[in-house]
Design goal:
Structural class: alpha+beta
Strand content: 35-45%
Helix content: 10-25%
Order of helices and strands: HEEEHHEEEEEHEHHEEEHEHEEEHEEEE
Number of strands: 20
Number of helices: 9
Shape: globular
Radius of gyration: 24 Å
Distance between the termini: 55 Å
Largest sheet: 8 strands, antiparallel
Length: 446
């Protein structure tokens, strides 16, 4: 599957670090990686694209005191590796000093590297992938004669492995996999068309959704949007479907990540220890869950990751910091160079029976949002404005689909205004939550 063994990647990393030392670097860090992938897209039963990838690369960061230089190459020959280290060294020579630059403190580096079961090969050939994608799309078309077209179905298979090492003696790495299937059907009635999609992703092929069920569900979503109307301007409760609720969790991560905090470009600057969510909300980061896409024993700098409470009873207990951003803030790294790991947002009020129908009942009369458009989030102020699609709900029941409307609010108010979190939990990447009900937002329509 791979052209280079794990041992060879370790050897390359060691050679790079030795070269950096010989050139006069005070410290250095290196990443050596290799990946393979297969992506097949079909549309209306015919193959549109077949993409097979095989990538490799080495990135080296060299420090001369507090000066930093970085270079990379996809050539693993001895000459190319030497030239890449030399390029990073020359960049560092002419870079200004930065008091916060440098490798992580030795006591933060991972000393244990447990096997988190992240590598599950999917032995899927091109013909098999085409057949699978066609089955997914065919199931969508079979759901109703109103499914008249399709943006296609796809199958993605990805495998990789890497080694991260530095001159403080840290070296670690492991193989990993990521697989996904998707479908995007288009429904049409009396000339009006609606599109929707659904996907399933996992490190483990057997955990992917049933292909036919995924295709049918994607079709049902598109069909449910036929006959969409606009709404007049009003203020109402808003229920975010669980995949979109994962996006709200992503906005929170962005607002409390080191880069935004030390640049003071976040509405949650200096919020540590303060109430930023409704008092029943908890957020946990757990990088140790086996076979999850967001799991990692160490971050991209080699810093150990740990399970921690980020929000407890609405109170912000932790930021997301790399070594550099932590030093800029006068704090300690949280092991989040490269991003957050397996975040789960939960409510202390959620019951097992709080599925989507129950959440619609909690909504009562308001807007159920299933689609978001645009990038209308201002992280400096927290202002939030997005185009949406979804459903108008009255008496806890869906009455009709809606489109061409906008919702607006402020993330600070939205986080505090979370009334309930559903038990209809879904995972999108490294984020996990149920649907989220917010007490009130502005809706603008035609």
């Amino acid at each position: 599957m791979f052209d280079y063994s794990n041992e060879r990647l370790h050897q390359i990393a060691a050679e790079v670090l030795q070269t950096a030392r010989r050139l006069g670097a005070s410290d250095a860090a290196v990443d050596a990686s290799e990946s393979t992938g297969l992506t097949v897209n079909v549309r209306r039963g015919k193959v549109e694209t077949i993409e097979q990838t095989r990538d490799k690369g080495v990135g080296v960061t060299v420090y001369i005191g507090r000066r930093r230089g970085h270079a990379s190459t996809s050539d693993f020959s001895a000459r190319a590796l030497h030239d890449t280290v030399d390029a990073a060294y020359q960049i560092a020579r002419f870079t200004g000093e930065d008091d916060c630059a440098g490798l992580p403190d030795p006591d933060t580096l991972a000393t244990a590297q447990p096997d988190l079961d992240l590598f599950h090969p999917w032995d899927l050939g091109v013909d098999q992938a085409i057949d699978l994608a066609c089955r997914i799309e065919a199931a969508a078309f079979a759901a109703s004669p109103l499914i008249r077209n399709s943006d296609g179905a796809s199958v993605n298979v990805s495998h990789g492995h890497f080694v991260t090492a530095n001159s403080q003696g840290f070296a670690g790495g492991y193989p990993y996999s990521r697989h996904a299937i998707t479908c995007a059907p288009i429904a049409e009635r009396r000339g009006a068309m609606q599109r929707d999609d659904w996907y399933s992703a996992s490190a483990v092929p057997s955990r992917l959704a049933d292909p036919e069920k995924l295709g049918r569900y994607a079709a049902e979503r598109a069909l449910s949007r036929l006959g969409a109307r606009r709404l007049s301007t009003r203020k109402v409760p808003v229920l975010f479907e669980s995949p979109l609720a994962c996006g709200l969790l992503g906005h929170f991560v962005q607002a409390v990540s080191g880069g935004a905090l030390y640049r003071r470009t976040s509405f949650l600057v200096d919020a540590l220890g303060k109430d930023v969510f409704a008092p029943h909300i908890d957020i946990v980061e757990d990088p140790t869950i086996p076979a999850e896409l967001g799991s990692a024993a160490f971050d991209s700098e080699g810093v150990a990751t740990t399970r921690r409470q980020v929000v407890s009873g609405g109170r912000l207990d932790g930021y997301f910091l790399s070594t550099y951003s932590a030093r800029k803030l006068g704090m300690k790294t949280t092991g989040n160079a490269g991003g957050a790991h397996n975040l789960a947002l939960t409510s202390r009020l959620t019951r097992q029976l709080d599925d989507l129908p129950a959440m619609l009942e909690r909504l009562g009369t308001g807007l159920f949002v299933t689609d978001l458009m645009g990038q209308g989030v201002n992280y400096v102020t927290g202002d939030y404005s997005r185009g949406v699609g979804g459903f108008w709900v009255e008496g806890g029941k869906i009455r009709h689909p809606v489109e061409e409307i906008t919702i607006a609010g402020n993330l600070r108010d939205m986080f505090h205004g979370i009334v309930a979190v559903g038990s209809d939990v879904i995972q999108r990447g490294g984020r996990r939550t149920g649907s989220i009900l917010i007490d009130q937002m502005s809706v603008a329509g035609g």
